[in-house]
Amino acid sequence: MYLFINKPYIPEDIKNEKGPLLMHISDTTEESFKYVIQAIQNINPQYLVHTGDIVDNIKLETNKHYLGLYKKSLKKFINSIEIYDLTPYYVIGNHDDIDSVRKLSSKGIILEKGVIEIEGRFFYLSHKHEETNTKADYFLYGHSFFPPHYEEGNKIGLNGLLNINVIVLSTGKIYQIEYPMGINYYRKMERGSIGL
């Protein structure tokens, strides 16, 4: 078992960026919420995209009887996020309950997947990576370790399960910040575990 005593390392370059900034996360666990909030406080993004499985340690798809516990943890996360001056986007993952997210979010934009435009850049958002001919600048996803980040022609794919992605929307520059040690233990995604 791991203890999350580490804090996110945020390079000074990110703190000095003029922005606007978009922060992309995915498959968060209740144990990582504090870490994510610390990253938000240090980065100060104008946009937050969560590509699903907001309370990934519960695995709601296979544990429907934990819906009450899921709602309690979801409320904690959403309330912690939505106090900041940012626009949150919540993509519904296989371990999320869309009705609960809709009920608890007061300012989030909630979708299952699709294209959004932010500051003149187009993003295809989905929980699971999809091969698609959809025109977008960035493809943001999570759910699985594969595929990792990629760049193919004009398409950039960022996997929010691997790390926190920060995109400087004015320049397109991408920063990647590590999640806390042990997050995959709580996601039940270490070797020998099944948890997708």
Strand numbers in spatial order across the main sheet: 4-3-2-1-10-11
Sheet with most strands: 6 strands, mixed
User: Level of helix content?
Assistant: 10-25%
Record field, number of beta strands: 11
CATH hierarchy class name of the domain at 19-112 and 159-186: Alpha Beta
H and E string? HEHEHEHEEEEEEEEH
CATH architecture of the domain at 19-112 and 159-186: 4-Layer Sandwich
Roughly what fraction of the amino acids lie in strands?
25-35%
Distance between the termini: 20 Å
Radius of gyration: 16 Å
Mean pLDDT: 94
Helix/strand class? alpha/beta
Report the total helices: 5
Q: What best-fitting shape do the alpha-carbon axes yield?
A: globular
CATH topology of the domain at 19-112 and 159-186: Purple Acid Phosphatase, chain A, domain 2
Uncertain stretches of 5 or more adjacent residues: none
How would you sum up this structure, described in words?
This protein has a six-stranded mixed sheet with strand order 4-3-2-1-10-11, covered by helices on one side. Helices cover 21% and strands 27% of the residues. It is built from five helices and eleven strands. It is globular. A hairpin with a 2-residue loop joins strand 8 and strand 9 (155-159). It has a domain at 19-112 and 159-186: Purple Acid Phosphatase, chain A, domain 2, CATH 3.60.21. It is α/β, with parallel strands linked by helices. The protein starts with 11 loop residues before the first helix and ends in a 10-residue tail after the last helix. It has helices spanning 12-16, 33-43, 67-81, 98-104, 183-186; strands spanning 21-25, 47-50, 87-91, 109-111, 113-118, 121-128, 138-142, 150-152, 155-159, 164-168, 174-177. The model has no long low-confidence stretch (mean pLDDT 94).
